[in-house]
Amino acid sequence: MNYEETKSVVQEKFLSSERVTAFLCDAKVLHPEWVKKDRLLCIVEYGDEKAVFCLFTSSYPPKSFTDLSIEIVLPIDNTFKCEIDNKPSDPEAVLYLNLQSRNNKFKFEIQMTPRVDNFVDDLFRGIEAVSKVPTQPEFVWLKKYHGKDEDDIITQFSVIPRSGVAHAQNSAPVAIRESLIKRKMYDKELEYTFTKKFTVFCGTWNVNDKSPVIPLEGWLSVDREPPDIYAVGFQELDLSKETFLFDQTFREDEWYNAVINYVDRRAKYVKLEKVRLVGMLLIVLIKQKYISHVRNVVCDTVGTGIMGKMGNKGGVSIRFDLHNTSMCFVNSHLAAHVEEYERRNQDFRDICNRTRFLQPNQQAKAIKDHDQIYWIGDLNYRITDLDPNTVKQLIKDNNFEKILEWDQLKQQHKNNNVFAGYTEGPITFKPTYKYDPGTDNWDSSEKNRAPAWCDRIFWKGEAISQLAYRSHPALNISDHKPVSATFSSSIKVIDEEKYRKVYEDVIKQLDKLENELIPQVKVDLTEIDFGTVKYLELQVRTITIKNIGKLPVEFEFIKKLDETSFCKEWLIVEPYKKCICADESCEIQLKVLINKTSACKINAGTDKLYDILVLHLYGGKDIFITVTGTYQRSCFGCSIEVLVNLNKPIKDVPVGKLIELENKRDQCVSNQSTYSIPKEIWFLVDHIYLHGLKEPNLFEQPGLHSEVLQIRDWLDSGSVDPIPGSIHSVAEALLLLLESTADPIIPYNLQSICLKASANYLQCKQIVMELPEFRKNVFLYLCEFLQEALQHSAENGLDAKTLSTLFGEIFLRDNPNQIQEPQSRINKQVIDKKKAQFVHHFLVNDHSDLIFTR
Amino acid sequence: MAKKTYDLLFKLLLIGDSGVGKTCILFRFSDNHFTTTFISTIGIDFKIKTVELRGKKIKLQIWDTAGQERFHTITTSYYRGAMGIMLVYDITNEKTFDDIVKWLRNIDEHANEDVEKMILGNKCDMEEKRVVSKDRGEAIAREHGIRFMETSAKANINIDRAFSELAEAILDKTAGRDADADHARIAVERRPSRAPPARACCS
């Protein structure tokens, strides 16, 4: 096994997109706990990223990628270091390679071979490339070679086989599917829900730093029927510095208990949530019987006070799902002072933008992402451009409409500067600010403020109708009066049975969609019969793959398990990999060519013209394509020992008999054989001898391929007609025949001896004497013939040197399966010269003594 | 309604002689559709279908294989990774029943050791052409300790039931492991390592 073959085995260990750029055999890892030997080091490239792998091989050299296991993975990143030392005791022959990546350090012992230079060069190229890239590579592709624990780099990991079940559709996009289902169910909500009316009570009160010293039922329990939901908000619960700085107050509990005490006693309520930021408190209660239909209760707070952050102003919110309706309640205290309405608008926007309800495994929700929103609070908008006394007079006259024309909030709302999309009910109550605490008198301080509707309630969402919007002036402990509103709101309730059905339909639809998106192709032929296939005669068939799916499809002919190539060596598939767009087709050519290698195997019965190709669609199915044909046996690709035993044309010999002869060729002996040399060789040589010895450029001018094929048929069928074709075609056929024999005329194992002896004729003669009998016959017969040809060099232009070079290559054929270092050009020239020299002796010397020893 | 859900992916495989109705069973199950025209499966194909078992959404990826003899060597390489295998014969065809033993041997050799198996005697709507009695089907299943059911893709008999039972058996096996581990098990298909352990004691 040579370098290239070993390399291809190593490459097999990786995916095709991961290219092995260099590797070293015979490495040892120096680690106190490990067996040292039988390691391979390789550099693998994936895109711009490279990594060094250390592989353990169970057989040396590795015969298959299953012999290899990945032991160490060192990504070449900016932490990668490489130091090279010589082994002190043996500096010429052994190197130490110290590799470090991230926190892993390894030392390897390397045999000094010319390959080491390549490897080290490639390594440094990788390091250099990394230093030039501004962003660090991620090495995502390496993850599969690591164990569960990233740091545990010692893993026995084999690459996922590229064919088959294991490969397809593993990474089902579960997350995408989940959100698709959600989306579809949302779209079909009407099909599985019905609505049910709930009453919602919203109350807001700026309590101006007071404790709940009065009963609250006049505010919280005034409706004919007890509401289903309470949302009660307070502002200025506690104006102390401590509360502002440390956000702690005992008032929270005081007011919470007060609310609990004074909600409608006719129903039983439970707390859903309460949330406070400094002086802003929001409490949401629900009738106990509905609590089981509430989910995903989340709250958030946003400060918009000092520096736009502190909690003296801002908003607190609670969201939840009741049945299938999402609800959100916001209690806010916006910026104060008459002229600051722009600031108040900004506070509203900030609360909207900054409130985020975080739920596990879900995208955070904003206020706007709810079916129903109720916004309460001291919004602090005032009456402008009206003299306080005028305002008070208009109030006395109950002419609220006139004053409301000058209400900042009405103005800003109308212009969509604030509460866009929200609704506020008609105001039929007196302004709620500013009173002298404990009275119903307007603020009597020097400021003489104009009264204002600071405390308001807005809503947004479908199917909400306001039943009441009022203030409660009797509760007079603060400088604000409490405000409340009740709503009749439609809540979507799920019909479990219908939901199931819709849900199943959605799943079915998605399955259908997914099935439709699986790549689909139509192949016009899955069984290809090449009919009679002849030696060296190319045959082509075309199949068409049509993409009948909805998406582009990528196909590839993939290897079957435990095979090294996706098709037999006598078959060529072009293209073997391609992408086809929807509704387009791709033609694939299948070419069969039986050359000497495959002919030998077929003749010996170790291969046949039958193969099943696996056409794999990425993310989809595999299609099996069967390729068959009948090989017409030929003398080409047979052993000399078989040919001498055939007393009739090969076409008339049963296939089974041929296979039997091929397998017994080692036992072939002269006294049982029909001929001393194959008759086919004799026919060709004799023809040239009789008709072509004087032919100019004999053996140098190529013949015609078509004539060579005719000569092949003539030899195989034992025709009585004269040999077809020109002398040059006959000469070429002879060379091809000699080159195609299963074993070379001089056996592979004698080749190196021949090369060593090439300068010495006597030694060469000795070797030829010891050749297997029939090969010796052929060798000497051909040499005799070539000597004869040289007699006519004046006409045919041949010389001994040319002929010995040509036939040296044929007689001393290189073993294609032998492990050898790839020959350098110079080395190859030396060997070729020696081969020629060996043959040359027999073209210029009289060796008739050898012939007569028989 | 956002139920807490996660998907499990189960890979199932349909095997059995050519013409027993593997593809029809798959079509009936996935598309609720049946066609009488016979087109031999030349390769490996799959469809998905999501089922709900014990409140869990389970995605079944069902692989349909070519039954023809000449493809047997190749199709066995697809057994690995399958968590459940449906072994199908035709109750109107004696040979397909006799071959069950061969298919079982194939499973032993090529599939994961803990694969769930089920034998299906298909075409049970064709009572007048029956040659394999239900008792014989039950007997062979009992002998090998495997579930058994007679089905008809044409008349839609027991098709859904067969798949849910097989999926449930796999679910029973995977219960106790958490969902993440299951996903990991699917995503990483390790080959049985033939190499000796890398960490070995050095003398």
Automatic annotation (TrEMBL), chain A:
A single GO cellular-component term on record: phagocytic vesicle membrane
Cited InterPro entries: Endo/exonu/phosph_ase_sf (IPR036691), Ig-like_fold (IPR013783), INPP5B_PH_dom (IPR031896), IP5 (IPR046985), IPPc (IPR000300), OCRL-1_2_ASH (IPR048869), OCRL1/INPP5B_INPP5c (IPR037793), Rho_GTPase_activation_prot (IPR008936)
Superkingdom per UniProt: Eukaryota
Domain Rho-GAP: 659-851
GO biological process: phosphatidylinositol dephosphorylation; signal transduction
Short name of one Pfam family: Exo_endo_phos2
SMART domains to which the protein is assigned, alphabetical: IPPc (SM00128), RhoGAP (SM00324)
The keyword Hydrolase is annotated on this UniProt entry: yes
Key words of the record: Cytoplasmic vesicle, Endosome, Hydrolase, Lipid metabolism, Membrane
Compartment annotation: Cytoplasmic vesicle, Phagosome membrane; Early endosome membrane
Claim: Membrane is one of the keywords in the record: yes
An example Gene Ontology molecular-function term: inositol phosphate phosphatase activity
Main location: membrane
Homology family: Belongs to the inositol 1,4,5-trisphosphate 5-phosphatase type II family.
Listed PANTHER family: INOSITOL 5-PHOSPHATASE (PTHR11200), TYPE II INOSITOL 1,4,5-TRISPHOSPHATE 5-PHOSPHATASE (PTHR11200:SF300)
Name of the molecule in the record: Type II inositol 1,4,5-trisphosphate 5-phosphatase
Organism field: Galleria mellonella
TrEMBL record, chain B:
Family annotation (Gene3D superfamilies): P-loop containing nucleotide triphosphate hydrolases
Nucleotide-binding recorded as keyword: yes
Keywords from the UniProt entry: GTP-binding, Lipoprotein, Membrane, Nucleotide-binding, Prenylation
Principal location listed in the UniProt entry: membrane
GO molecular function: GTP binding; GTPase activity
Topology within the bilayer: Lipid-anchor
Alphabetized SMART domains for the sequence: ARF, RAB, RAN, RAS, RHO
Entry GO CC: cytoplasm; endomembrane system
Superkingdom per UniProt: Eukaryota
Entry-linked NCBIfam families: small_GTP (TIGR00231)
Family: Belongs to the small GTPase superfamily. Rab family.
Protein name as catalogued: Ras-related protein Rab-10
Source organism (scientific name): Galleria mellonella
